Amino acid sequence: MHIPDGYLSPATCGLFGAVMIPIWTVASKAVRKTLSVRQVPYLAIGAAFSFVIMMFNVPLPGGSSGHAVGGVLVAILIGPWAACIAVTVALVIQALLFGDGGITALGANCFNMAFVLPFVGYYVYKLISLNSPPGSSRRIIAAGAGAYAGICLAALCAGIEFGLQPLLYHTANGQALYSPYGLNVAVPAMVIGHLLVFGWVEVIVTALVVKYLQKQNSVFFEGDRL
Amino acid sequence: MTLTGKLWTGIGALIILSPLGLILPDHFKAGSAWGEWGVDEIQKMTGYVPQGLQSLSERWKAPLPDYTFQGWEGQDLVHLSFAYIISAVAGIAIIAGVALCIGKVLAKKHE
């Protein structure tokens, strides 16, 4: 889901950069209000976890490969705004140090993976877990559902961003200027892989860690994390 | 061990296991992620290279491109796995450092 340089037009990149700036501003204000000194190590662990889990490329045999993002788990544990910052840090270092995801596409990649993914995942988790006890298995199911919804919707966003490019930007003879595949190809390609395989990796990882942490320290699952 | 110690240990285990993310796609003959092709791959798939994509892509020369050392693209899986683990360690050291700094700046106002 890491859109490389050149796949999105400069205008698209500028738009998503402009959208992310207020989101990052609100995120840092929200984190300033809610993140206690005690939680700072979890921000670092969350960012490190998201980075390393994205290295586990899972193959669609004979096809493409993909991976989990881990951002929903981070959102459940330290809140979606803190997760937005943690995943953003991972995405920036991936782009700069490893060329994974474009530098011009950072705004779009952060919108998909550091904003849509943790927020959708967190609210689905909240909605399903409601007031269930911190140690309940309902919370594990809620976390899994949130993980699935978050990563699949993020993939849908990436598919739409890819797919709009040839529609908006092409030469007079119809050749694409940036990403070459339209919505009819890009959206199914992005969404189906995540619905069938990569989304389930996100579900399993999220549910397993939530189950483990319920036993270790159920304070993670008490109250609101906003 | 403290809970943060246990979680860092878990991250360490993931670092050691990370070459699976290289070996499994290779074993099942899966290519790169959808939409993350190089210019050559696009040429093969569509018969042309989009002009804008051509001029914008591959301008940034990452120090550890695709989680390996520069010039190591054709190496065997053992070498690539080694580079992958080094990449994971380097990436996590920087990311954890940056996140800790951001966290300290933002969280220092209370407690």
Structure description:
The complex is a heterodimer of chains A (226) and B (111). Chain A has a two-stranded antiparallel sheet with strand order 1-2. The two termini of chain A are 26 Å apart. Chain A has a single domain, classed as Arp2/3 complex 21 kDa subunit ARPC3, CATH 1.10.1760.20. Chain A has 226 residues and is an all-alpha fold. Chain A is built from 7 helices and 2 strands. In chain A, strand 1 and strand 2 form a beta hairpin. In chain A, helix 1 crosses helix 4, helix 2 crosses helix 4 and helix 3 crosses helix 5. Chain B is an all-alpha fold and 111 residues long. Chain B has one domain. Chain B contains 5 helices and no strands. At the A-B interface, helix 1, helix 2, strand 1, strand 2 and helix 4 of A face helix 1, helix 2, helix 3, helix 4 and helix 5 of B.
Keywords:
heterodimer; A: 226 residues; mainly alpha; Arp2/3 complex 21 kDa subunit ARPC3; two-stranded antiparallel ribbon; 2 strands; 69% helix; B: 111 residues; 61% helix; extended
Stated plainly, the CATH topology of chain A is called: Arp2/3 complex 21 kDa subunit ARPC3
Question: Which oligomeric form is depicted?
Answer: heterodimer
**Mean pLDDT score of chain A, rounded?**
96
Rg on CA atoms of chain A, Å: 18 Å
Structurally, the number of domains of chain A stands at 1
Q: Which whole number gives the mean pLDDT of chain B?
A: 94
State the low-pLDDT regions of chain B, or none: none
In total, the number of strands of chain B is 0
Instruction: Tell me about the largest β-sheet of chain A.
Output: 2 strands, antiparallel
SS field, number of helical segments of chain A: 7
Order of helices and strands of chain B: HHHHH
- Distance between termini of chain B? 24 Å
Helix content of chain B: 55-70%
| Span of the ends, CA to CA of chain A | 26 Å
Shape estimate of chain A: globular
Strand content of chain B: under 5%
Q: Give a count of the beta strands of chain A, DSSP E runs of length 2 or more.
A: 2
Beta-strand content estimate of chain A? under 5%
